[in-house]
Amino acid sequence: MKLLKQRVDGYVKDLNASINIAVSKFFVQMSDVLEENIKENSLILPCTVSFPELVSIVEKTFSKEEPFSTNLNSRTNRIPLIRQLTYHIGAGMGHSYNHMHVSLNEIYNKKVVKNHATIDHSVKKINDLMSINDAKCMTVRLQIMNAVIKYVEENERTV
């Protein structure tokens, strides 16, 4: 019985490793496809979308996670990544770290981030992840960018 349990445990480990490899390859392929779709719209013109609008777009896009309104203290992998990408995209649009910090605290009437250094750290972390083409980071970034582009087009603003 002990030998059978060891074999089953070994098979489970092998299966988990295979699944992780397949999922990683899928994310890489999806990020490549999505990247091609928005290559011409990879940059949003500065301040086309205000930072409060960007936060609203992200909250609607990721309504299950609610990265700013409900799950502020969540340490699950995806929720902080969504917040960090929001800061990175906001900085790319020309919003200052201090402006983003003040805007978040005005929107949610509480401390979302302690100071602008949190945003600075987030932007640097996302730059590092993007430099190595991290699959999760690229996929979530493209989801946010697509949502922003859709919002801009619906509101007849210039991209």
3D architecture notes:
There is one protein chain. The chain is mostly helical and 159 residues long. It has one domain. Helix content is 69%, strand content 0%. It contains six helices and no strands. Helix 1 runs parallel beside helix 6, helix 3 packs across helix 5 and helix 3 crosses helix 6. The radius of gyration is 19 Å and the shape is elongated. About 3% of the residues have low confidence.
In what range is the share of β-strand residues? under 5%
End-to-end gap: 65 Å
Q: What general form does the structure show? A: elongated
Please count the beta strands (DSSP E, at least 2 residues each): 0
Low-confidence stretches: 38-42
Rg estimate, integer Å: 19 Å
Summarize the structure.
By secondary structure, the protein is mainly alpha-helical. It has six helices and no strands.
Write the layout of secondary structure elements.
Blueprint: H1 2-37, H2 51-61, H3 78-92, H4 97-108, H5 116-131, H6 135-154
Helix pairs in contact: 1-6, 2-6, 3-5, 3-6, 4-5
Key terms for this structure?
69% helix, mainly alpha, elongated, 159 residues
